[in-house]
């Protein structure tokens, strides 16, 4: 249990709750849920520029990371087709992957196919079900993809000024503006309470909020004096109590709850808001292809990790379809912006490619 681990190492309840957020982030779990300790490990393992457990902002926004990978691939001769949706994987008579068919009917032939789409999209939508083992299909269908995350992107005309650390007169970012700011984390009981509400189909009345201001480090993201604020909030169920949809009214009501909470910590925040973009779990699924809105393509629970990710016997990136590989967050070792699944899958694919 995450709560037990933190109790062993720390005494301060606000510190324990703040660290606990990395154990429940993106997970429909509470600090008291068995296995939640692993999610914390997943977020602090590894290093960045020699600093263990460190995370960083990407200069230019997260899209800049994709662009850097794209440029590196193009420099090695890769051809990249954006906005070209794949209809299905092309299979030969022997059942092996031979390429993909785009939605406009174009066939792209290849010796290998790597998919960083979710296991659900890859195997349940892009492959005819009769080509796959029944127990494998059943396993993919049963993957727990519940997600508690609603992401809110906000544009503000001034830097938030927190009661705990008011802004300087010149309005310049202070050290805490350049970090991850955790709100509603005074105690782990608050996180558990927020989780419990979501399990009953109700968005948390006092949501867990991770607030980042990337423009405090990267001024090019916003006009001078203005800022972009990224809010990673939970818990919000994919389906609301009574089967109610996440319509405009429900979205705005939840966002208002989040903004009221921030206002209590940083008076004037609501008045500074120029615009906001609210992405509930169904929005994250529809726009980004995240099953259930899950940022990891499936829960990072103990029954869905290591040899069982995405299914037992298929944790090594190869799939039941010869020459088709899974290289996204749904593969071992799971989600997070670290590239481990893609790097590992590439090595496996290259090893096979040499024998074709």
TrEMBL record:
Keywords: FAD, Flavoprotein. It is found in: Mitochondrion matrix. Residues 30-170 form the Amine oxidase domain. The keyword Flavoprotein applies. GO terms for cellular component: mitochondrial matrix. One of its GO terms (molecular function) is oxidoreductase activity. SUPFAM superfamilies: FAD/NAD(P)-binding domain. InterPro entries: Amino_oxidase (IPR002937), FAD/NAD-bd_sf (IPR036188). Belongs to the carotenoid/retinoid oxidoreductase family. Probable oxidoreductase that may play a role as regulator of mitochondrial function. PANTHER family: PHYTOENE DEHYDROGENASE (PTHR10668), PYRIDINE NUCLEOTIDE-DISULFIDE OXIDOREDUCTASE DOMAIN-CONTAINING PROTEIN 2 (PTHR10668:SF103). Interacts with COX5B; this interaction may contribute to localize PYROXD2 to the inner face of the inner mitochondrial membrane. This is Pyridine nucleotide-disulfide oxidoreductase domain-containing protein 2. It comes from Eolophus roseicapilla. The gene is Pyroxd2.
């Amino acid at each position: 249990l995450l709560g037990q681990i933190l109790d062993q190492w720390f005494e301060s309840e606000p510190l324990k709750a703040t660290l606990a957020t990395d154990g429940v982030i993106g997970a429909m779990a509470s600090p008291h849920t068995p296995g939640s300790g692993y999610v914390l490990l997943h977020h602090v393992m590894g290093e960045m520029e020699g600093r263990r457990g460190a995370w960083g902002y990407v200069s230019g926004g997260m899209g800049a990371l994709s662009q850097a990978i794209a440029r590196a691939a193009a420099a090695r001769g890769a051809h990249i087709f954006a906005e070209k949706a794949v209809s299905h994987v092309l299979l030969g008579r022997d059942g092996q992957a031979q390429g993909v068919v785009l939605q406009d009917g174009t066939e792209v032939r290849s010796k290998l196919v790597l998919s960083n789409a979710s296991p659900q999209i890859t195997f349940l939508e892009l492959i005819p079900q009769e080509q796959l083992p029944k127990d494998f299909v059943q396993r993919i269908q049963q993957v727990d993809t519940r997600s508690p995350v609603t992401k809110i992107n906000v544009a503000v005309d001034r830097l938030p000024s927190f009661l705990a650390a008011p802004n300087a007169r010149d309005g310049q970012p202070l050290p805490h503006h350049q970090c991850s700011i955790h709100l509603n984390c005074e105690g782990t009981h608050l996180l558990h309470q927020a989780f419990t509400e979501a399990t009953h189909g109700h968005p948390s009345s006092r949501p867990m909020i991770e607030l980042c201001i990337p423009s405090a480090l990267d001024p090019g993201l916003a006009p001078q004096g203005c800022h972009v604020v990224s809010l990673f909030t939970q818990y919000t169920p994919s389906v609301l109590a009574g089967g109610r949809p996440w319509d405009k009214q429900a979205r705005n009501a939840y966002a208002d709850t989040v903004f009221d909470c921030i206002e209590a910590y940083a008076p004037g925040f609501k008045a500074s808001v120029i615009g906001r973009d609210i992405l509930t779990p169904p929005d994250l699924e529809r726009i980004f292809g995240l099953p259930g809105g899950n940022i990891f393509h499936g829960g990072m629970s103990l029954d869905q990790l290591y040899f069982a990710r995405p299914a037992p016997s298929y944790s090594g990136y190869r799939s039941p379809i010869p020459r088709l590989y899974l290289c996204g967050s749904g593969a071992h070792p799971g989600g997070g912006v670290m590239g481990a699944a893609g790097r590992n899958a590439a090595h496996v694919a290259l090893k096979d490619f040499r024998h074709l």
